[in-house]
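Trying the structure run again after the queue cleared.
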Amino acid sequence: MKIALCQINPTVGAINQNKKNILDSYNRALDSKADIVVFPELALIGYPPQDLLLRDRFIKNANNALEEIAQKSSVPIILGNALTEDNKLYNCAFICENGEIVSHYKKRLLPTYDVFDEDRYFSAGNEHCIVEVPIEGKNTKIGLQICEDLWDKNYSCDLAKELKELGAEIIINISASPYRVDRLLDRCELIQGKAKHNSIPYIYCNLVGAQDELIFDGQSLAYNENGELVAQGKAFEEEIVMVDLALNKPLDLNIIEREEKIYNALVLGVKDYFKKTNHSEAVIGLSGGIDSSLTASIAVDALGKDNVYGVSMPSKFSSEHSKDDAKQLSKNLGIDYRTISIESIVSSFEQSLKPSYNGSDVGVAEENIQARARGSIIMALSNKFNWLVLSTGNKTELAMGYCTLYGDMNGGLAVISDLSKTDVYALSNWVNKNAGFERIPISSIEKPPSAELRPDQVDPFDYNVVSPLVSSLIDDEKSPSELIKEGVDPELVKDISNRIRINEYKRRQAAPGLRVTSKAFGMGRRVPIINQYDELKHD
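Done. Tokens:
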């Protein structure tokens, strides 16, 4: 039995394009003598479609496309689409064969956590689905699941066991599972356990590509009845994975180095964001620092060097080494590089504001004029040439509000907003190691971080201390009290947790950021702006 797992890259709402991609992949799978062809969850409409699901015409168009696919089917095809039935909407797996839709399965478990809010749109199914598929002269009973059905331990049920008891000989799960660090290992552990404990092959077909903040990694999997891995799809690439349970030999899980995997995820995130929003060129403000350097490297690998523009915007406080680093980075990457001084612009602002400032001491407000002058210049270039601005702030800085609204926060996409400062350093070193030379100038990596908004300024944080602390509070969702009990300085914990709380309003106005961790700022983290709860005062 040859099962083709088509981990494709659909675009939300591009129904005709997705239909064509499905049919092209289906025909290629047939050329490879596949007995059954499998596509990911909601492959026809893209994932997540969000409020497009509330539009009747959208659902109707998707159903019409499904009918067209069914009419062109010969060997069985399994793919995801939405279904309206009795005034309810369901997330379904459809089985098409010999020119018609022969059956469908309604997703049982609907995730409502982190980035998922499926019960906003879908009703949950309440029945298992086992389809008999004629393969090699005999009927094979296939039990169907959709994504979250695999994670049934969170719902106190065992759907795989139930399918086995109902006579299923193989389980096929179609999925749209977003990437995050270590997600592959989580999936493998669950699938291996299901296969081994129930003595049943478990086949998992995952989506690939990026949609807004989410990145889907593919890496489709197949485990035999002994819980042995027999097939694994590529990471972050479209691919047809051929699985023959009778012939495929057990293999070791291919685990890519952490930094390489995160970097490749971000490259795909940028590439798809541009392609799917009909943009082709990016502009980045280059300070000579590590954040903008890493962002530029990712952009070049995603878009090509001819489609990336670097802009240095020095002030009177900009050091020569920072300007040199920005220039060297641009040379290393082969991108267009230009310099636009902000000194006269800043001076004009300062003179205009002087009467209103009324002789007050120079402080943060004056410093931020520089950041906002740069923000205006970069947006002017974007407006003029249709270049999409890539903002360069990292997660640690965004958490603490160490960024300027309408200045360095400007942008259409925040590439590294889910990377801690620690990870920024790790990925930058990996970039150079992978390139075999200092693609990112070593001085950008080694020099003390600085916004260079005043003489001899350096960032007011020890990132070796602050970055892990922010990760504990955000990614690990540890409470301030827990961290203090673990021995972290109470005053530091109080300061950082307060900074995170009071700067929510800034993050609400940030560009959408690519998600690579378990808890990113954005759609998966919903904290009120007006928030006066201080855990340490209520302990």
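The longest strand covers residues 88-97. Worth checking whether this holds up in the mutant runs.
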